[in-house]
């Protein structure tokens, strides 16, 4: 079993949603927390709650800003100690039909969902390697990163995070750093309203009716506290993939069967 007490965790998107669920699960185990989020009100609320359980520092951070990421990392480690648990969790759920897509939508989506993960990795992995004490990195993707869906912007970003994590796990193991990728199904968060709030003037959400339906679907999903415990269990098992439910199992099976069926059979060597 992993020794949690006294470790330091850095969680992006840690003020709310899945990030807060992970923070709560870690706090119960005595982990010291550095929470980064773009929402200062959410950070203040989370700090008040979690400071009753463990040491907490909060930082306003746009995960696309590499210089800010480095500065926040320095400050977090100076106050709490070396970060050995990294949760690249911040994300948005934008949507656009193909006919309305613009470069700015791609920049926003990939900037937060993919480059936010890259920036977290590039900020903290070299520090972990230099210390030679190992560590753990959990990247939040989505079930949409395992099965192609109709939301091109979101699916593209999440597939990239899954591929990054699967590849990273092999290389990071040489340094004693474990890697998992969280692929949640529906989780009861406010990700759609948060996406709209930071959408930078872009129309990156469904039309109003569809948005309400999607929000209701998400609210019926797994609680953030349950997800936090699932993440801990996945880390204890050193799992490559951490899932919150089995809702996409049949779709994954169909995808894999179709992928395997598309490959040609081996060509027998010609007999001379």
Automatic annotation (TrEMBL):
Keyword Methyltransferase part of the UniProt annotation:
no
The record ties this protein, via CDD domains, to:
SDR_c
InterPro entries reported for this sequence: NAD(P)-bd_dom_sf (IPR036291), SDR_fam (IPR002347)
Entry-linked SUPFAM superfamilies: NAD(P)-binding Rossmann-fold domains (SSF51735)
Listed GO molecular functions? Answer: oxidoreductase activity, acting on the CH-OH group of donors, NAD or NADP as acceptor
> What keywords appear on the UniProt entry?
Oxidoreductase
- Keyword presence, Oxidoreductase: yes
Return the similarity comment: Belongs to the short-chain dehydrogenases/reductases (SDR) family.
Q: What is this protein called?
A: NAD(P)-dependent dehydrogenase (Short-subunit alcohol dehydrogenase family)
């Amino acid at each position: 079993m992993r020794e949690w007490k006294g470790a330091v965790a850095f969680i992006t998107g840690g003020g709310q949603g899945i990030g807060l669920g992970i923070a709560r699960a870690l706090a119960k185990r005595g982990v010291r927390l550095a929470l980064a989020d773009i929402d200062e009100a959410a950070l203040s609320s989370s700090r008040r709650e979690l400071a009753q359980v463990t040491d907490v520092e909060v930082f306003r951070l746009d995960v696309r800003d590499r210089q800010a990421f480095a500065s926040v990392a320095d400050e977090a480690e100076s106050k709490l100690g070396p970060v050995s648990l990294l949760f690249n969790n911040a994300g948005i759920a934008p949507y656009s039909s193909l006919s309305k897509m613009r470069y700015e939508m791609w920049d926003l989506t990939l900037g937060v969902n993919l480059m936010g993960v890259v920036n977290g990795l590039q900020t903290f992995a070299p520090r972990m390697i230099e210390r030679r004490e190992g560590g753990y990195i959990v990247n939040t993707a989505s079930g949409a990163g395992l099965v192609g869906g109709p939301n091109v912007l979101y699916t593209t970003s999440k597939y990239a995070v899954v591929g990054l994590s699967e590849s990273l796990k092999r290389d990071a193991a040489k340094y004693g750093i474990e890697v998992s990728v969280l692929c949640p199904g529906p989780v009861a968060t406010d990700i759609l309203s948060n996406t709209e709030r930071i959408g930078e003037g872009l129309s990156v959400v469904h039309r109003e009716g569809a948005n309400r339906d999607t929000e209701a679907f998400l609210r019926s999903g797994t609680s953030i506290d349950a997800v936090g415990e699932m993440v801990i269990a996945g880390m204890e098992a050193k799992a490559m993939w951490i899932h919150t439910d089995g809702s996409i199992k049949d779709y994954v099976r169909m995808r894999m069967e179709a992928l395997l069926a598309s490959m040609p059979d081996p060509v027998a060597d010609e007999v001379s």
